[in-house]
Amino acid sequence: MTFDFDKVIDRWDTHSSKWDGMEKAVGARGRDAIAMWVADMDFESPPAVKEALLEEVQRSTHGYYTGDLGWREAMSGWLSRRHGWEPDPDWITPTPGVVSAIGLMLQAFSEENDHVVVFSPAYHAFGKIIAANNRRIHNQQMINEQGRYRMDLEGLAASLPADARIVILCSPHNPGGQVWKEDEIRAVCEFCIERDLLLIADEIHHDLVYSGYTHHVTAKVMPEIMDRLITCAAATKTFNLAGAHVGGAIISNPELRRRFRSACAAAGLLSLPLFGMLATEAAQRHGDAWLDALLPYLETNRDLLADRIVKDIPGTRAMHIEATYLGWVDFTGTGLERSDFMKRITEDARIGVSPGPQFGPGGENWVRFNFATPRPVLTEALDRLADAFSDLRG
Ligand SMILES: Cc1ncc(COP(=O)(O)O)c(C=O)c1O
């Protein structure tokens, strides 16, 4: 089966946060602006998703959902097929997305004002959900070692606040695209065991891993962590189903699972969203061939973006993206002020990007570009960037 990732889909006026919300959020204005910020893709989801949703639409009666065992089995089956880890379906709790699940975990497993550790620069929603729950973020800035981030556990050992309760490991990492090696994951697990911390492993980007790299499931790397580990997984990033807003919290420890489910119950979240459940189950049951076709397409986009940006904007450096469809570009070497650099991207090239500072300490001089878009759109964006910075090429 072939899939047409080159097909350009007009996403304006579709309630798309990435497109319809772009001007307000990141400033790129006009109908010819190109959205390269929010982490969803501009491709069609797998055909099996459309079929499952169409079947539901044809029935035309959309009441409350029940019977999520099949959904949990589909997630476990996917993890087993793709990542060699088959969690018991009973360990999995469906959640309304990963970020909201993390919010519920903060409520269940920490107190107000407690610290939550994040390795920055890190996905900005971690900081937002930590603050929204009146917890405090402890940003442990990563070290950029020859173009690859390293989590600074020595620094964390020295700076860890006494009231730190939880560590969030983003694996693979957003932004920066690191696929953590087994010894890197093991070191974080050992740290959490030593310091009596709960570990939340957000593995939502687990499937978007490029050739030469293997995602290592935290639970598999270090079974000894299982008692204090919550793994967040989802089909939404992989299959372009972010709007379905469904994830899974995988917890083997029965007491932690009970407390997490109580937090879900307290928020009235035991009733699950019908459309999201159908879409994500179909994707994880039938989406293998689609994903296998998508990954090389994304990999070509990744290389095109990095090669052209570095060539066309002298002084920039692109981090080597091992996973995710998010390019991460350092403009320190251009000598331009942030405001000038951003103005050229947003106003001159009319491209909506994610500004680095929102990812916390270490992100100040960086910009994140989402390259999960059809190649004609990507090429147009890169041409515009080349024009916006042409004076730097002498
Ligand atoms: C690391 C990470 N976690 C979670 C999410 C969002 O998850 P959800 O939409 O299920 O809340 C994203 C989206 O970009 C992400 O990058």
Bound small molecules, by name, code or SMILES, are: pyridoxal-5'-phosphate
Q: Could you state the order of secondary-structure elements as H and E?
A: HHEHHEHEHEEEHEHEHEEHHHEEHEEEH
Silhouette: globular
Helix content: 40-55%
Fourth-level CATH superfamily of the largest domain: Type I PLP-dependent aspartate aminotransferase-like (Major domain)
Using DSSP, what is the number of strands?
A: 15
Strand content: 15-25%
Quickly count the helices: 14
Distance between the termini: 47 Å
| CATH fold descriptor of the largest domain | Aspartate Aminotransferase, domain 2
Number of domains: 2
Low-confidence stretches: none
The overall pLDDT average reads 98
Neighbour order of strands in the largest sheet: 2-10-9-8-7-3-4
